[in-house]
Amino acid sequence: MHACGHDGHTAILLGVAHALAKFPDKFVGKIILIFQHAEEQPPGGAIEIYNAGVMEGVDELYGLHLSSAFDKGVFGIRAGVLTAATDEFRITVKGSGGHSAFPQLCIDPIVIGGEIITAIQTIIARKIAPSEEAVVSVCKVNAGTAYNVIPNTMQIIGSIRTFSEDTRQTIKAELEKLSAGIAQAHGGEADFEYIYGYDSVINEPKLALVSEKAVSELFGEEVVLHIDKVYPGEDFSALHKDCPAIFIEVGTADKTKGTHYPHHNPQYMMDEDMLVPCVAYFLQMIWLRMRPDGK
What we know:
Blueprint: H1 6-22, H2 46-51, E1 61-71, E2 75-77, E3 80-81, E4 85-94, E5 98-99, H3 109-127, E6 134-143, E7 149-150, E8 153-162, H4 165-185, E9 189-198, E10 202-203, H5 205-219, E11 224-226, E12 245-253, H6 275-290
Parallel strand pairs: 1-12, 2-11
Antiparallel strand pairs: 2-12, 3-10, 4-8, 4-9, 5-7, 6-8
């Protein structure tokens, strides 16, 4: 189960399409509606859309994400860097397996891997400046097939989230150096693979102001929330390589309805009450930027 609200995004855009088709005289110009696909698995679907030439000639790009990280009804807006760049790392620790009764005859990859996992936690604390923001998380470990067999290998898989390219490259280098050094100290080896995921979404400041205006005119200034950077990645970043963009977070958390659980949680539930307001938001953005009278 993915549990992230993308079915809601599809419904929202279908609502926008319906309204635009019904009232074609309310805007001038060409509007392209992009239905997000394969967003969760890098390299993602957005880069396929970009490479297919869909974004050629596009002047501005608008997007949003339903988010249970914010209270229902608020529209989270930020100018500049919004989302973290999200990458994946894979470390394969190579030892020499054998019978668990004779560990002295083995090079235990699980012991080596355990040290690597612990040492990874020092990268942010000791290799990244306190003024920078980053997260390194170990999320998957695979090793062994039996209770009494020391395996030959152990695999460690995790994610890196950064907001600057310098920090991104520093963490990559430290992960590789740390894993190789610890493995070598125990007589083993460590193969390192770094998989680049999504770059950061960067919002155009002028469009952030337009977004605030759209929300304020529709729902009042009190629902505009100036948010900090957010750590989940978003392949929307692949679409705004050549044009200014604005991507906002729309709050859906409501404890009374049980829609406050985090994304990717088995109890996550999308709050459908926010679908129509999101349709209205997109239509208002189009009206403000593409109205026939040019105002």
